[in-house]
Amino acid sequence: MRRMVPMWIAIIAGFAMLLSAFFPMTESLGETFGDVFNVVAAIAFILGAGSLAKVNLAKVSRRDPGWGFAVVTLICFTITIVVGLGKFGVPQNPQFAALPWSGEKEAEGGAFAWIYAYALVPITATMFALLAFYVASAAFRAFRAKNLEAILLLSTAFIILLGRTFAGVVLTGWLPDWASGLRLENLSVYIMQVFNTAGNRAIIIGIALGVSATSLRILLGIDRSWMGSGD
Amino acid sequence: MSGPTRTWAIIIAVIIVLLGVRMSIGGGMGRAYSQRLEQKAEVPANSQTNTPARTITWTEWHAVQPKIYFAAQRADPQQTQVAFSWSDTIGLWIGAFFTLAVFSFLYRDNAGYRLAEAVIIGVSAAYWGVIGFWDTLMPKLFGALVPSFVQAHVMPSLPNPSTATVIAMTFALVLGVLLLMRLAPKGGWISLWPMAFIIGVTAGLKIVSHIEGDLVAQTVATFKPLISPQRIEGVVEIWPTVWASLANTLVVVGVLCCLTYFFFSVDHKGVVGRAARTGIMYLMITFGAAFGFTVMGRVALLAARIEFLFDDWLWLIDPAGKRTIEVAASAVSMLCWW
Amino acid sequence: MKTLVAILEKLDRRWIFLAMALAVAGPILIIGITGKTLPETPTPAARAVYNAIESLPPGSPILLSFDFDPGSGGELLPMATSLVHQCAARGHRMIFIALWPLGPTLIDQTIKKVIQSDYPNLKEGVDYVNLGFQSGNEAVMKVILTDFRKAFPTTKSGSAVSTVAAMKGIERVSDFPLLITISAGYPGAKEWIQYVVSSSGGKVKMVTGCTGVQTPQLFPYYPAQLNGMLGAIKGAAEYEALVNESLAPKDHSAAPNPKYLEAQRRMGPQLGAHLLMVALIILGNIAFFAARKTKAGATS
Description:
The complex is a heterotrimer of chains A (231), B (338) and C (300). Chain A is mainly α. Chain A has helices at 4-20, 27-61, 67-85, 111-142, 148-163, 166-172, 184-219. Helix content of chain A is 70%, strand content 0%. In chain A, 49% of the residues are buried. The mean pLDDT of chain A is 91. Chain B is mainly alpha-helical. Chain B has helices at residues 3-24, 66-75, 86-103, 111-145, 147-153, 163-180, 192-222, 238-262, 270-313, 325-337, and strands at 33-43, 54-64, 82-84, 230-232, 235-237. In chain B, α3 (86-103) packs across α4, α4 crosses α5 and α4 (111-145) runs antiparallel to α6 (163-180). Chain C has two domains: 2-36 and 266-299; 44-247, 3-Layer(aba) Sandwich (Rossmann fold). Chain C is 52% helix and 12% strand. Chain C has eleven helices and six strands. A six-stranded parallel beta sheet of chain C has the order 3-2-1-4-5-6, with helices on both faces. In chain C, α2 runs antiparallel to α11 (262-299), α3 (44-54) packs across α10 (232-247) and α4 (73-90) crosses α5. The relative contact order of chain C is 0.17. Chains in contact: A-B, A-C, B-C. At the A-B interface, α1, α2, α3, α4 and α5 of A face β1, β2, α3, α4 and α6 of B.
């Protein structure tokens, strides 16, 4: 029961989507399932938020190492949820001014927008930016021209790095027109359109075969690993 | 104190001194301003609630560039229409603190970085939850199940749902409640049912899209004519034709060789081995290109953060002309001091 | 030479971090003070994006999907600015959506920066509209293939989409002659190609502005399934230069507004950082081969 019901739910939902791509009369069924999926996905956001709160509350109650940061997480979580759901400080919506809840939650002047601008943006953007430093350090320590494969990788990286900036123009811009294909900026385009296209295309075709085979195994009830091992 | 530690201590001290100097000279830094806007809306009479027609007014504060404040002050020092914004200024400094706190991880792990990490985990999880609630659940789920409530309090123009929509959304609600059972100490197994729905729908979608959009379309795009005449005003040009034909040939050969390399059911010996080896060469060039572009992407993100510190916070530069004359004075005085 | 190799071998990674910070910060300061930018020559992929928008008759509805968050804003916001700039200048109807939760705020930011400040004649709800975010990733794409309003029933400000003039004549995604996605990952340009462009049988034309990480992965789709592409900040700078050039007065009497030069300004720090990367790889290899030679000498 515990494994048969989910397996059949997956099979029915999957075939409904599959059929809707081939038969126009089942199009609306696929559309409805898609719409239900979208709403369940939004509820999954709430599940994620609840799960985070649960994990951090457990950390605090057990006084795990670093529990103080879990408190910070919980405080920030609670504040964001409260000001976001309550639309704190949000000005009225001019179209529906009589309704106090009709304002846009991200509207300028609201607390939710403040959290977005001054906490979410600086931290996420800087965390992504940190990788620029690590990629430089990794390049210094790990990129070694030990064999032909490594030399090819390094040479391509050099052509892209130089050819996609003004350095390419400065270094090879003097080449005459008949040899313009060897200018770094043109070489970088040629690499992308030929070698990179071929390599990535093979990867795409490989992934497509893998994904469709795995999906088909799920829809035929052969692959049940997604249900986990326990009953 | 060891040699390197001392050097780093000196570098950090220099940065702190420069920051202190920057705070004390020039035309200011790290300040935000906002403009007051009086809003008005006419609300028609509502016979159902017996409310007469009325006018509602309220005040909004919108962030403006510092140059607008400077101009307003020059025109009338007593004006109150554009004013210093405490909330945005504090926010700006908090944003700068978080930026530096995350960068401080480059030196070593520390409490400042962990604080920023704890904040972002809490804020982003809640943020996604709030967005999911207002943007999807409110118009779709509640809009279908309790339309009169949603129309009366949040979205008056939301259309009434059809019966089919109500049935579909009831089904979605049941699945959603079962999904939330995952948080319960017992009975989490039932959350496998909505998971099955999610997996089934995803699998059904992915089969078609990957075969149609990737497998078939990419195969078709690969098999282009190996001789590709390039004409300019009807005349075949030799060198463009040679380059285009070579490019087409290299793509076809490359895709076949790379696929051969991925094909492990046959030993990579003889012709197959040579083809697989050529495929590896192609893949190495592909990874080199990926590396180059990854560097490019990350550097752009870093540049944006440094621009934020130099422009919005320190007022050292003003590339977008947000402050005009005042910032030029700041930058010049800073450079003179240096 | 030996000393240099020894230093390189033992070099603390924090010195590399400092070098990277200086390589990026230096050009930012110089460009920020002088206001000079480097020249750009557009590649065919960037030109194709420009032509795709330019070739549509004024008033054409264009779907702009903001599939990114502030984490990728450094690369993608300049593209968003220029894309909206060209669409607004051409008088196209812009319908904004987002498949990433933080996308709608970035849409508002771009609308305020470009449309509300430089094209005040364009009316919200008539010439442009922000339909906000919807969860579900590719399932949203599946729904809009047949019924756009089912996936996006209201605008971000809460009005029913059926009452919005900008949405006139739009029943499904194939009613848009052009789809623009500004993409940072999943869901993004790849999914739009797989689920919408392919399923529409070629009816939907699409161009994209994408991150550096995505650019090589998307190249195989261009030009068959993807009509144009802005790859990373370089693509943004090329396209920005094209748009600025086309909108400049014939006699070039006025320079473009600095807010439309963001990507081109960012190519300065890019140059510094790329040169540093090349230098680091070369130095790393010098140290490696010198150490290997020394070790081989000691063994023999």
